[in-house]
TrEMBL record, chain A:
<keyword id="KW-0812">Transmembrane</keyword>
<dbReference type="GO" id="GO:0005886">
    <property type="term" value="C:plasma membrane"/>
</dbReference>
<feature type="transmembrane region" description="Helical">
    <location>
        <begin position="293"/>
        <end position="311"/>
    </location>
</feature>
<keyword id="KW-1003">Cell membrane</keyword>
<keyword id="KW-1133">Transmembrane helix</keyword>
<keyword id="KW-0472">Membrane</keyword>
<feature type="transmembrane region" description="Helical">
    <location>
        <begin position="323"/>
        <end position="342"/>
    </location>
</feature>
<feature type="transmembrane region" description="Helical">
    <location>
        <begin position="154"/>
        <end position="180"/>
    </location>
</feature>
<feature type="transmembrane region" description="Helical">
    <location>
        <begin position="34"/>
        <end position="51"/>
    </location>
</feature>
UniProtKB/TrEMBL annotation, chain B:
<dbReference type="Pfam" id="PF02653">
    <property type="entry name" value="BPD_transp_2"/>
</dbReference>
<keyword id="KW-0472">Membrane</keyword>
<feature type="transmembrane region" description="Helical">
    <location>
        <begin position="81"/>
        <end position="106"/>
    </location>
</feature>
<keyword id="KW-1133">Transmembrane helix</keyword>
<feature type="transmembrane region" description="Helical">
    <location>
        <begin position="271"/>
        <end position="292"/>
    </location>
</feature>
<protein>
    <submittedName>
        <fullName>Monosaccharide ABC transporter membrane protein (CUT2 family)</fullName>
    </submittedName>
</protein>
<feature type="transmembrane region" description="Helical">
    <location>
        <begin position="169"/>
        <end position="188"/>
    </location>
</feature>
<feature type="transmembrane region" description="Helical">
    <location>
        <begin position="12"/>
        <end position="36"/>
    </location>
</feature>
<feature type="transmembrane region" description="Helical">
    <location>
        <begin position="245"/>
        <end position="264"/>
    </location>
</feature>
Amino acid sequence: MDKRVETPSTRENETVIPGRFANFRNYLSHDRNLLRLLGITLAIFAVMSALKPELFLTVRNFSSMSFQFPEYGILAVGMMLTMITGGIDLSMVGIANLSAILASLVLTRLIPESAAGGTVGLFILAAVALSILTGVACGLLNGIFIARIGITPILATLGTMQLFTGIAIVLTKGAAIYGFPDAFIWIGNGSVWGIPVPLLIFAVIAALFALILNQTAYGNKAYLLGTNATAARFSGIHNARVLLWTYALSGLLSALAGLIMVARTNSAKADYGTSYTLQAILIAVLGGVNPNGGFGTIAGVSLAILSLQFLSSGFNMLRFSNFFKQFIWGAVLILVMVINYYSNKKRSRSTD
Amino acid sequence: MKKLFEKNEFLVALTILALAIVIGSINQAFFSLANLFDILRSSIVTSIFAIGVLIVIVSGGIDVSFTAIAVFSMYVTSKILIAFDCGSFLGTLALAAVIGLVLGWINAALIAKFKLPTLIVTLGTSSMVQGFMLAFIGSTYIIDIPEGMVRFGKLDLIRFSASNGTTTGLHAAILILLVLIVFSWYLLRYTMLGRGIYALGGAPVAAARAGFNINFIQFFIYGFVGFISGIAGVVHASLVRMANPFDLVGTELNVIAAVVLGGARISGGYGTIHGTLLGVCLVVVINNSLILLGVPSYWQQIVVGSLILLGTGLPAWQNRRNEARLNSNLLD
């Protein structure tokens, strides 16, 4: 652990993007990991294209893939944020469903029958705003439990996951809500100049968070906090505030993913997307995020999302069952961790 | 006396007592023998799981794969025994326990050899184990479970008929639980291995320096969890008289909640069997009594979630305040 603590001198001289100054060796190994991941992604793409060219290499497939991955991709970005600070957010799917259900209640119960297009638009804006506010509030609650009260992130978010899902169940009595205005469905199913709206949302989020992590004081502090919390505190970083921000942002992203989920399926329910928690962790780890904190990039996570989506679509075309996919996800997660273990070991042996 | 009040176990016991008084005063049915047996019966499987989870948490790890292991062992055992037409219940238990043991060792190998985070390993293996079973072994209910399980399912130690004609009984599975309680209590309290588990949870490096074989301890822990998960799976299937491959998975958080409520520290190094059993009792009483109190069952998750936050938040808050008092200049 000590090796990862940066010294003030490297900090002064470092000219590369600030988020990456945490450790020069990490920076090198990261590029190698990224290259390997790119190789894996291309290999999966090539194999699937070779096996089912008539299905895989079609505009329709690419279009359907870019409607599918943004919702769990956005969750994975949030998971990455919390993992960078050395935590984890198991409540993301709970937040997504709760905020989505609140928005759905506004959209299905409050809009008057006779409302004109403009009024409906206002209601949609209100619903979106409500769900985002809910997401941030839930995230802040996580942050308070973790940073102020001192519960470990696993337990705190485990508890709030039950709490948020529970509230969602009570609100809906366990039933699904459906039947939304067309303008709202557009968020999940529409296209702008041929580009799916969910993909656009994901692209904006990825760009924004790459910027936040690399160019802002918050980004630097988050990496430092994850690398060594004690060292961060002694360099004058307000750890509790950084954690509050992190979980609030993760809550915000959960709410956005929830909105896309509702709009895409035209329904909301308290137990949608439960498999996304594992998937988001899998993507983060596959994308090179260190679960113990201190490292992770948007580029890595984006590549991991792509490779997983190629694999998933390919399996669908090969008619593998969902159960088989579940087995493969688990296997890939463990395999990646084992490969990382060996490559880290090799590197530390060759440099020490 | 003050020390007693600071103990989590004592607080949990007080909470259960207070709850019992409140629930009992609202609905007299709570104090009936039938309800007592009912609560005991529904806490057997959770308690077996909880003992395993306690040992993992004491060692500083976490395991979320035990329900998947339990269902896998139970389902595969049922399939094998039906194919070979074998009716011995002890044989059933042994087979399921061995399957569970092997699956637990897979966790142990990944954790001990590659030093991977326990949460992520067990998340991965849980997905693998369940996915493998559903994809390759079967995804349909088995109603005709092996004869040994049917016989065991009907085995009551004491049975009596209430005045309204319903019969209730104390199920024999409580004996299996008792054996496991005594075994693990002795293990944690009086053996070197048990001391090693606490030492590992307290400070892994110090434990290794003190001469404990960390790899061996981890193989024992995760193997043991797998072993008793297999047993819990068979007991569960016998009690509900059906082998359902979609059962149990998803309830692991309730078990972890019960263990943590019972005073085990998630950071490792502290936890007791009696505390864990009290924690299970609290969760089961609350879940069973919501119905007696006339609260709709969909409130259950909110209650459990709040309990986890309360049960982990209070000690964490206390801890933080003590620390702050010790070094007030380091407050962040």
